[in-house]
C-alpha cells in the first residue's frame, strides 16, 4: 500500500534522551511503515544531527540553515511527498494509534484542513503546585472527550490545534506557503534561545481563512516531556512574556486583535499598577503573570509622538 502521511520533526540541538523517546513513540505506531515517511529537519544544530533511522525505510534527515522553527517547518513541508502531514516536536511521544487516527479523521472529513488533540505532560521531576496555571504556555492541554470542529469566524477558534501533533492537509497550506515564498512578513517563532511563538497559530489562521475547517479530536493523544528547567519561575516568566507578546502581534497581523493599541508613554505606569494589582512580589505565580501582562502591553504599545 502506498504511503499517505509525512511526519515532520523539526529540531535544534535536541536533548538526546527526549528525542530518543520521540522516535521510540514513532517506532511503535500501529500504522504500517509503508504508509508514512519520516522527515527530520536539522535546523542548523551546533553539531550535525546523528541519529539512527535505519528502522524506517522512508526516513530522511534534511538540513535547514536558516535559524527558526518556522523555516524548519517550511523545509519539512517542501520535502514532504504526501498529502497529509503530522508535526511532531522533538519532545513529544505520540500514542501508538496517533497516525492511524490522523489518517482516518482526514479520510472521513474532507473539509478539515488541520487537526489536533490532547497534549498531556510527562514531568521529568515533580512539578510545583502553581505550574498548572501555565499549562497552556507549555503546550499542554486537554479540552475534553468530545470532538469539536470550527470554521473561520473572524477570530481565533477555541479548539484550534496546537503545533505539537498538528495534522495538516498539504492543500490547506497553500496560502501559508505562498506568504512565505512571496517574502511576506512571517510570524516569528522559536529561534535559538528565543521563546517567541505563534508560528503554529499563523498556520491555523491561514488554513481557516482559505476556507478549511479545523478540529479537536480527543483520540489524538500525545505526551509532552517537560524537563525541570521549564518548570522554573525565571523560564516561565520569560515564556509568558514572549508568548503574550507574540500572540498580540499574530492577532494584529491578521486584523483580529480585539484590544486597541496604547500609547507607549503609558507603559511604565501601566506596568507599575499591574505590579501592585497582581501582587507580583508575593509569589512566583503572580510574578510570572505580571511578566505576561508586560508582554501584552509591549505588543500593544504604539511608538509615536503625542
Automatic annotation (TrEMBL):
Top-level division of the source organism's lineage: Bacteria
| Signal peptide coordinates | none
Task: Enumerate the InterPro entries for this protein.
Answer: Glyco_trans_2-like, Glycosyltransf_2, Nucleotide-diphossugar_trans
Ranges for the Glycosyltransferase 2-like domain?
A: 6-133
Q: Indicate what this protein is called per its UniProt record.
A: Glycosyltransferase 2-like domain-containing protein
